[in-house]
Amino acid sequence: MRCAANEAEYRKLIDESGAQHKTRKVNKEQFLSGEPVFTQVFKEVLKQGHNAQSMEKLFKDMIPAIANKI
């Protein structure tokens, strides 16, 4: 969440994550299919609703951005 507050750090995180996922046996579509899973897990783990909503917004932006780097 801290990286998301700083645009440069956020873009660096996305670039690094994209590079890491290129080495794994996962394609863009497979990676994108994980978004609902991550969102659901964080909704269950985070007890305060606004935290879960913030993570969902972050995932909805971050996961497609990373997928475009794969």
UniProtKB/TrEMBL annotation:
InterPro entries: Globin (IPR000971), Globin-like_sf (IPR009050), Globin/Proto (IPR012292). Gene3D superfamilies: Globins. The keyword Repressor does not apply. One of its GO terms (molecular function) is oxygen binding. Pfam families: Globin. Keywords: Heme, Iron, Metal-binding, Oxygen transport, Transport. Residues 6-65 form the Globin domain. It comes from the Eukaryota. Belongs to the globin family. This is Globin domain-containing protein. It comes from Fasciola hepatica.
